[in-house]
Amino acid sequence: MSAVAIGRASASSRGDAKLSFAGAGGEVQLTAAGALGDSVSIWAGAILQANATPEAETVNLILHRVFLNYSIFEKPWLILRAGRIEPSLLSFSSHRMLFASYRFLSTTVADNHFTLEPAQLGFEATGTLWHRLGYAFGVVDGAGNTVTTPKDIYGSLRFKLGGLPLDGSQRGQKADLLANPAPWREWSLSVGAFAYRGVARIKDPSSDAFADDRFVIVGGDLSALIRDVNLCGVFTFQRNESPRMALPSKPVHVQNLMIQADWVGWPWLIPMLRYELRRYSGEVIEAGLNRDYNHYLSGALHVLIRANVAAALRFEVTKEGPTVGTTKEGLTRDWRLGSLGLFLTGAL
User: DSSP readout, 250-267?
Assistant: First the structure.
């Protein structure tokens, strides 16, 4: 079991409080894992988060992933996962980053509250073939809305060229640190593609009426490791048939682009930079995100001060496009020193 305590201070161009310590000591992340023999393993992760308001302070418990793995074969050809899982859609995991999650994984569209992450409830079959070809197929409820009888389904394929194979096999190579003092270094390229089809049952907030929004998400990604530099990118296209109760049968299209670069300057110093684009089109645009497009530039500098103690400086700049139907005079900009954080980690 491991625990991470996080404290943050933040500054922003919005609001009366330009500098805030509201996030200081406000979050603890707990992770636990175990094995039952050679074939069964269990993983669980939870977040304790404090929320302060003028009236009172509350503490929320968030289970972001709790699942069981069952390996059918001795080699990772077929692994069954069940529980609260992270869908294996990308060739790299957003949970192994040192930065915030990607926007396209956690942003909703209009009245449809579905998001790909943090987790989905259901089953997944995943595995690795011929050391470098990975696959996944899942059947899940679809998070964020009323559970429907037609289940959501998804599938993905990924392939890695060069570097350490997907199954971690060394095949004659020495795996100890003396033989490879910089194990993060390699020359490799991973490419992947995925598709997700779902049905969201959305509710009219002003009545008890329900409607179904059928949607499809397709995308591709790549990740290149060039010694100390990791370059990765994702493009997705999403089509929602009817995401707003007030305007039924009016589709919305959403395109997402993400590009990120990480550099392991030293094992204790890792800077990163990310650009994201989210573009809406169609006859219905989400309230609060009623822009043709939104640009996000963010970055972070992570420093390992000593064992189990790390600090991070993060920033974000947002540029929102003009509201649909207006001119370029509608452009707005916002900056945010996302957080200056201190992370304390420990393992039991």
Answer: --EEEEEEEEEEEE-SBT
